[in-house]
Write a structure and sequence with these properties.
With 380 residues, the protein is α/β, with parallel strands linked by helices. It has 19 helices and twelve strands. The chain is globular, with a radius of gyration of 23 Å. InterPro entries: DNA-bd_dom_put_sf, MerR-type_HTH_dom, MerR_fam, Methyltransf_11, SAM-dependent_MTases_sf.
Amino acid sequence: MTSGCIVGAVEDHWTVGRVAELAGVSVRTLHHYDEIGLVRPSARTAGGYRAYSAGDVERLREVLAYRRLGFGLREVADLVGDSSTDAVAHLRRLRDLLLERRDRADAMVAAIDRELEARARGLKVTPEEQLGMLGARLYDAIGGAYTATRRTEPRIAAQILDALGDARTVLNVGAGTGSYEPADREVTAVEPSEVMRRQRPAGSAPCVAAAAESLPFEDQSFDVAMAVSTVHHWGDPIAGLREMRRVARRVVVLTFDTDEPGWQDRFWLTRDYLPEFAAMLAEFPSLAGMADAIGARAEPVPIPWDCADGLFEAYWRRPGAYLEEHVRRAMSVWTRVGPEAEQRAVRNLRDDLDSGRWAERNSDLAHLDTADLGLRLLIA
């Protein structure tokens, strides 16, 4: 639906049939959205029939836009139901997603054109060049979904903020799109991925293109250096942590504990559907080793059942979310285990949800408000 249809209308409500016609969807689709509580017509016609108010039309526009970007209904419900996001914020988010998709498509077209030209000239195309069109950096492959699903979780943020203490100058290493950056401090961000840097909102902290292992700052330049859910992406985590210790007087890191025996069985997703997760972290440093590298203590970070940040473990009590493509795309785990493991895990999870086996196997989770799934805060 175009903004012209809304602005130019003289009615204060729109019938279901008219809205279906303008939006290019079926009346059946609108009825389904009504039944599941996604978009419910709140007005009435003179004849007493249900109709859409201007606010209903605005919400429907957001729902349909997210749907046409490939988002699942559960994810759309979370997005449009976010009370902290108004219509302007939704439009900006949609615009960013569309621009990122356009830029990625343009880059792939250019890469394909180069390969076609090379092949036409009889030149050999190397595997590196073939894979170049897909993007070498992991975050460049998954970063486009971050603005939609990776948002600051207030309860985790409060724990991080408490660990930052009275620090005034903060270095955020592996900063991504800026989640968890404190708004009341002087923050400098470091992020190697251009895709992630482009998605940082207007007015956010200045961001430097650099890697954790080689920070371009003098010794003790900051009160504290922080890193949130990023260490596992670094080429040399211990070197990156030591760099943080070098440039800051204190260090706060949100990471993952693989020290505990049987740690991979803490989470039903890795235990029952994705055993490859354990192998993926086989080379990851131990929590004790990371703590020793910076002289840190570790404290558990419980994950709330309704966690707003779509990190890998966030949906431990909402298993259906893992069936949604865009939820998974914002989690690096799925890219790293590969499409075959991902498709098998999703297929088996869907079968177990449909049959009720998942609910039987995980009935003890139903009444938990938080879960300890291995997230740890290192504080030095």
